[in-house]
Amino acid sequence: MNEFLRKKWEMAGLADDYIFNKVMLDYDICLEVLCRILPDLHIKKIKLPNNQQEFAVAPDAKAVRFDIYTTDEQGNHYDIEMQVADHHNIAKRIRYYQTASSMEAYDKGQPYEQADDSYVIFFCNFDPFQLGQQRYVLHKHIDEIPEQIIEDGQTDILFNVPSLRHDVDPKMQAFLDMIAQRKVEATDPLVVKLKERIAVVKRNRKWRSEYMRRSVYEMDQEMREKKIREGERKIRDGKRELLEGKRELQKGKRELQKGKREIKEGQDRLKEKEQLIQEREQKLHENQQTIIKTSILAMRELNIDETTIRKEIKEKFNLSDKKIKDYFAE
Q1: What pTM was estimated for this model as a whole?
Q2: Is 122 exposed, middle or buried (CB count within 10 Å of its CB: 0-12, 13-18, 19+)?
Q3: Distance between CA 220 and CA 101 in Å, rounded?
C-alpha cells in the first residue's frame, strides 16, 4: 500500500468526504445529525440514508450525485453534503442540488401546495460566503421587503466548519467540532457513536481499498486538470504576448510613419529655406547690378575716364575681369 495513501487513510476524519459519507450512512447518526441541524422539525424517523444517489433534472442535463440523501416521515427531503475544497461556485452548486432534490418533492398529478419540503445542507471546510458566519440559512425573499421570506418549501443551510464563533447550540457545535477534529466532550452520545463508526469504517478493508483507488483517481484527475489549466494558461499567455507583439508592431509602424512624415516635413522645410536663400541671393545680385550700373553712370557723368571707372568698380565690388567687361559692354 502506498505510504502516502496509507497515512492519508489513517489521518482522515469526518472532514474527508469519503469518510463522512460512510459514517453518515449509519441510520442513528444521520437521524441525530438532522435533528441537531433542524430541531424545530422534531424528526422522528427517516428512510435508510442513501449514499451517492444520482439525479438528473433532464435527460441531457448535468447529473448531480448526492453525498447523503434521505426523507423523513413527513416526506421532507434532505441532501447532506461535505464540501472539502472551495471551487468558488457554491451558490450555483446549491441551486442545482436544490433543483434536483425539489424534483423529487413533486409527485405526478399532485397539487403544488402539497409538494414536500426540500433541505440542502452543506458542511464546508471553508467560509462559503466569506462573511464570517458559522451558519448560513438561505431562503428566497422579496427584494423590496427583505424580511418577507417566500415560503416555497426550499431551505439551504451551510455550515462554516472552521469557524470558532460558537453561534450554534452546543449539540450542533459538538458535531462541527468532530468534523474539524477539535476537542469534544466524550460524554455526548453522538460523539461516542461517531468515534465508533469512524473506527468501523477504518477497519473495513473493502472501503479502504475503494478509498485508495478513489484517491489515486482523484490525484490523477487533479494532475490532468492541473496540466489542462497550465496548458490553458500558456495559451492565454501566448495569446496575450501575441496581442502585445501586434500592438508593439502597430506602434512601431505608427512611429515609422511618423518618422517618415517628420523627414518629409524636414525636407520640405529645407527646400523652402533653400528657395528663400536663392530668392534672397537673386535679390542681392539684382540690387548689386543696379548699384554698379548707377555708379558707372554717375562717374561717366562726372567725365571720369573709363580706365579709372573700371578700376574703381572692380576694387569696390570685387568683380572679375569678365564681369567688368560685361558691365561695360552694355
Answers
A1: 0.66
A2: buried
A3: 31
Tens-place pLDDT, residues 257-289: 998 998 998 898 989 888 888 888 888 888 888
CA distances to 28, 66, 95, 101, 193 from 92, rounded to whole Å, are 31, 15, 5, 14, 34
Collapsing DSSP to helix, strand or coil, 13 comes out as coil
Alpha helix segments (H runs only) across the chain? 3-11, 17-24, 27-37, 90-103, 170-179, 189-203, 205-301, 306-317, 321-329
For 223, the grid coordinates are: 494532475
Query: How confident is the model over 7-25, as pLDDT tens digits?
Result: 889 999 999 999 999 999 9
Answer for the pair 50, 68: CB distance below 8 angstroms, yes or no: yes
**Position 168, amino acid:** V
CA distance 313 to 297: 11
> What is the rounded distance in angstroms from the CA atom of residue 24 to the CA atom of residue 80?
9
How far apart are alpha carbons 98 and 178 in whole angstroms? 26
137: nearest Cα among 115, 180, 177, 167: 167
